[in-house]
Amino acid sequence: MEKKIKNIFVPGAIAPSFVAESIQKHRTKTDIGGHSIFMGQVRGDEVNGKKVTAIEYTAYEDMALDKMHHIREAIFNKYSLTCMHIHHSLGRVEVGEICLFVFTSSAHRKAAIAACEEVVERIKNELPIWGKELFDNETHQWKVNQ
Amino acid sequence: MSLTIQLFGQFVEMAGSNTLQVEGVQDTDGLRRKLEGMFHDLQSIPYLVAVDKDITTGNTSLQETSVIALLPPYSGG
C-alpha cells in the first residue's frame, strides 16, 4: 500500500499552544514512555550593525515532501518509535517565534532522543528549504546553515 | 530543445523570475556551463541541480519533459 505523503509545512510561525496541544494528544497513547521535542526559534542575529527581525521561508515543496517521506521511513526503520510529528514554517516568522517543531515518541527514552536529533540534522541538510533573513533596515541576506 | 528551469531562494532574485527558459542544452553539465555564463554568481555558489525531484550526481541527460530545478544551499530549520 502506498503511504500517504504528509505535509510538514505550516504558514507562518508555529504557536506554542499548537505544541502544547500536540503533547496533550499523546495522553491516550499509553505505550509511550518518553517524548523528545526539538524546536527551532528565529534568532535575532546582528550582522554588520543590522539586526535580523524575521526570516522568510520558501521551499521546493514537492521535492521537500518527497524527501521527508523517505527520511521518515528510514527513521522508523532505524529506531523503535511509536510516532513522529514534524512541522516547518513557510513564509514570514518573526524573531523569537518557532519555525521548526520535531516531536518523537517511543516506549523508552533513547530511541526518541536519538531519532529526534537525527531527524533535525537531516531536515537541515536534505530538505530544499531556504530562509531569507530580513533586517531592520529593509535589506536582507540569505541564511546559511551551520 | 527548450528546457524550463525552476529557480528557488536567492536564484529567484538573481534571475528576477521563478523560471528560466534555456535552449540548446542536452545534459546537466551543459546546463551548468550555460547558466554559469549567464549568471557569474553561480560560479561561486555550491548549487545543486535536481531532475525529477532528485539531486543529480555526475552528468545527467535532460529531456524536454524533465522537471529541472536549480537549488542554492539549503537553509531550512
CATH superfamily of chain A: Molybdopterin biosynthesis MoaE subunit
CATH class of chain A: Alpha Beta
Instruction: Let me know the average pLDDT of chain A.
Output: 96
Give the overall shape of chain A, derived from the CA principal axes: globular
The domain count of chain B comes to 1
Within the CATH hierarchy, at the fold level, what is the topology of chain B? Ubiquitin-like (UB roll)
Helix/strand order of chain A: EHEEEHEEHEE
Structure commentary:
- The complex is a heterodimer of chains A (146) and B (77).
- With 146 residues, chain A is an alpha+beta fold.
- Chain A has helices at residues 16-25, 61-78, 109-126; strands at residues 9-11, 34-41, 46-47, 50-59, 81-94, 98-106, 129-135, 140-142.
- Chain A has a single domain (9-142), classed as Molybdopterin biosynthesis MoaE subunit (Aldehyde Oxidoreductase, domain 3), CATH 3.90.1170.40.
- In chain A, strand 5 and strand 6 form a beta hairpin.
- The relative contact order of chain A is 0.26.
- A five-stranded mixed β-sheet of chain B has the order 2-1-5-3-4.
- Chain B has one domain (2-71): Ubiquitin-like (UB roll) (Roll), CATH 3.10.20.
- With 77 residues, chain B is an alpha+beta fold.
- In chain B, strand 3 (48-51) and strand 4 form a beta hairpin.
